[in-house]
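Structure ticket #2291
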Amino acid sequence: MIQIFSRQLVSLTLANMKARYRKTFAGFLWVILNPIILYSVQSVVFRKILKIELPDYSLFLLGGLLPWIFITSTLEMSIPYLYNSHNLLRGFRINPFLLILCQVLDNFLNFLIAFVIILIPMMILTENQQSAFYYLPLPILVLLISIASISSLASLMNVFYRDTKFVLTFILNIMYFITPIFYPVEFVPTEYRWIIDMNPLFYLVEAFRSAVYNFEPSYFWMSLIKAFLISLFFALISFLYWKKRKNDLYYYI
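Resolution: structure written out below.
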């Protein structure tokens, strides 16, 4: 059963990637161009105009921006996918979770490509910067589990409540500014620090960045544990919701 699921997952993921770039001019080049363009614009605005002064700010910004791009782009792709795949689900009775997971893995591969091509050279070229390459698979895995859980939950909710996509997009737009991506958490006044503490995406991003920028073992492990607990929470909520509503899925698509 596991082998069949794995083969189907690999086949659907590859087919999904081919379909996405089949008629594009640049293909996988967009995977590299997207974070580079966003980084370039934000780097100019936040460092040159808003005067955010941090040592090796380029690495600090990339360490938060890359996981954030993965989070938002994966959710945008995954949320409408179940409802848009109603013909496929009705005709072949494919496991719905399999479809969501192939979307997540498709975008995850894009994230890894951008990570290898953009971030790792930046980490190497930044001479005075402490980074922990060997710890990075841990926050990356936690990030993948979390986003797979959130995507499956949101995609199923979108089948029953069509405004899920718009509400979540609105929330993500707000959370971008209350998640320390382009500024350090120390810039937030103490009386407003509780807003950051209540933001689950902050811990997912921070666990990744703490291995990339100014690595400090105790802070990294604390951030990773918090991110792992958040991933377990989202996985549990997603599992319970799927268990409750999976039988109703085919009546709504």
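Closing remark: Residues 23 and 50 are 39 Å apart (CA to CA).
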